[in-house]
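Reminder to self: tokens first, then the designed residues, so the page reads top to bottom the way the pipeline ran.
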């Protein structure tokens, strides 16, 4: 277990040990940090919302778009826009096969018990990779606000998540 440097005078963390909290949600996600005893959620650049749609879009050029911009592309290119990835965390194709028509993107059956895969342009992504893109976006967002690198985070998971789903969330982090 690593050590966390704390200023004993005011109880603050050393700047190199910034720890943030992330709610990786099914529909929306957000990131927050502590200033003294006050939690502060990180809002978008125009200050209107702390919520980030938990959506990842892959454009034709290979660019990855996350959040509100990806949500706007959900209608234009639903087959390239991944939503509700949290519902797939730690699950195999057999776990979600009866619900596959809920999704507008291609869920792959590879006849195995491994994590479900999603295909876009011949490339296969699993829920851990897709969630990692959302987490990376949130990390970048909070680093801009704090003007500091973030290497530690607490990521929430629902109480109903099983061990495989919790581990998949850890792996994404």
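Designed residues (173 positions):
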């Amino acid at each position: 277990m690593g050590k966390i440097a704390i200023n004993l005078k005011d109880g603050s963390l050393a700047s190199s040990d910034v720890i943030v909290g992330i709610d990786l949600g099914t529909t929306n996600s957000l990131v927050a940090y502590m200033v003294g005893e006050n939690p502060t959620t990180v809002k978008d650049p125009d200050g209107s919302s702390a919520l980030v749609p938990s959506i990842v879009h892959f454009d034709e050029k290979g660019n990855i778009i996350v959040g509100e911009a990806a949500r706007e592309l959900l209608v234009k290119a639903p087959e390239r826009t991944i939503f509700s990835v949290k519902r797939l965390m730690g699950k195999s194709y057999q776990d979600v096969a009866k619900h596959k028509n809920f999704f507008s993107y291609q869920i792959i059956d590879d006849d195995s018990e491994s994590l479900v895969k999603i295909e876009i342009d011949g490339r296969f992504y699993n829920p851990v990779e897709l969630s990692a893109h959302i987490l990376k976006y949130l990390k970048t967002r909070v680093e801009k606000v704090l003007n500091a690198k973030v290497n530690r985070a607490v990521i929430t998971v629902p109480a109903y998540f099983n061990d495989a789903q919790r581990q998949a969330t850890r792996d994404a982090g």
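Residues 127-146 form the longest helix (20 residues).
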